[in-house]
Amino acid sequence: MYWENELETLERTDLEKLQVARLKKTIQAAMNSPYYKNLYTQLGLSADSVKSAADIRKLPFTTKQNLRDNFPYGFLGLPQKELIRLHSSSGTTGNPTVIFHNRHDIDSWANLMARSLYCAGIRDTDVFQNISGYGLFTGGLGFQYGIERLGCLSIPAGAGNSPRQIKLMQDYGTTVAHAIPSYLNRLYEVFLEEGLDPKKDTKLHTFVIGAEPHTEEQRQRIQEMFGVKAYNSFGLSEMNGPGVAFECTYQNGLHIWEDAYLVEIVNPDTLEPVPDGEIGELVMTTLDREAMPLIRYRTRDLTRILPGECPCGRTHARLDRITGRSDDMFIIKGCNVFPMQIEGVLMKLPEVGSDYMITLDTINGADEVLLEVEVKKDWFNGDVNRLEKLSRTITALVRDEILVKPIVKLVEPGSLPKPEGKAVRVKELRKALNS
Ligand code: AMP
Ligand code: ZN
């Protein structure tokens, strides 16, 4: 039933005991790093400061800025000879974020990944194609180690080159693939261009999708196009990468592995815990990492803990789909808008193609939302009246959702920019914000 029977189904009281013991160990390990040693000594904090999981609130938060300011070694608690790998963000703005791992950390991560995949119904009989960049990005090696630990035949395909991805799927009878959702829409178009139907011409039955925000509507589309089940996978490089939270076969939220992470949901403004079930910022503490423990890391991701028990029997809490990051939200004409609200509207419409772009611009002195939407080929080449009608429908539905009337432009499939990695949904060109 489970990858690790005991750990995945621990009674909540036992789980909390394990968390407290691991938290104490984590604080001790953290105090070997210059950053935490200095901070906790100043504040008179130590492993003895925590007696329950709730005592975590006595400790200060850690932010991405703290990581950047102490780049590269300020958070490292072990000598370099103990380390076996690092992963880092691209660092296009300021210092990159780097996470170091020792052998234990890599082993524990591989195990969490294998547990996650098993939880989504993937077994050692599967052929697993990992459509993800290998290298410093964690989606490559992070998945690779988990796939191997589980015992699937792995195809380390890397990202991009859709015709090659399709060929690999056909040559080796791929049954499971992992990719970012925005890419899968494009991959489907290439299937069609090649005169293939993934439902008939592949053995795919499962996708693992994650690494970027996406809506339930997007998931439904992917499932229908490919005739698969698509499971949501959540992670961030500061917490290893993938393998932090994963959907089980009930697809009703993402089990977050609480033996490895202590989870809090806080109000991003007051930083106080929100009542159970309310949306707030996810704050996480590593409980099983030796080289570079992070305590109360503010992820900026907005979500909530779902109430109730999961029929699968796992006792670890379930996170709701991430609605976005607090820094993704934009304010236009006084309204707070998340890009996923717009995606939710678009992906319900069968005429809409795979991509869209939201541009915020100042036009004749007023702030406007320009919404470019790719339309499926047969629609785009069809009747102009039909396109105008679609444009009016999108305008009205988006206005109802975000309370601001967008300027909608329907564009040809494939015409919007396709970044190599995660989708970029919003372009900010407003004068007032940029001056
Ligand atoms: P990175 O550290 O570059 O892998 O990026 C991690 C970030 O990607 C997270 O903090 C989230 O904002 C986002 N992310 C990862 N997985 C998901 C997911 N399943 N749903 C929504 N956002 C996600
Ligand atoms: Zn479950």
Give a description of the structure.
This protein has 14 helices and 20 strands. The protein has helices at residues 5-8, 12-30, 34-43, 64-69, 103-119, 138-150, 162-172, 181-193, 198-201, 216-226, 339-346, 377-380, 384-402, 431-434, and strands at 83-88, 98-102, 127-130, 153-155, 176-179, 206-210, 229-236, 241-247, 254-256, 261-266, 280-286, 297-303, 318-319, 324-325, 330-332, 335-337, 352-363, 366-375, 407-411, 426-428. Helix 5 (103-119) crosses helix 6, helix 7 (162-172) crosses helix 8 and helix 11 crosses helix 13. The strands form five sheets. Strands 4-3-5-6-7-8-9-13 form an eight-stranded mixed beta sheet, sandwiched between helices. Helix 6 (138-150) links the parallel strand 3 and strand 4. The longest helix is centred in the first third of the chain and has 19 residues, at 12-30. The protein is α/β, with parallel strands linked by helices and 435 residues long. Helices cover 33% and strands 24% of the residues. The model has no long low-confidence stretch (mean pLDDT 95). The protein binds adenosine monophosphate and zinc ion. Zinc ion binds next to loops.
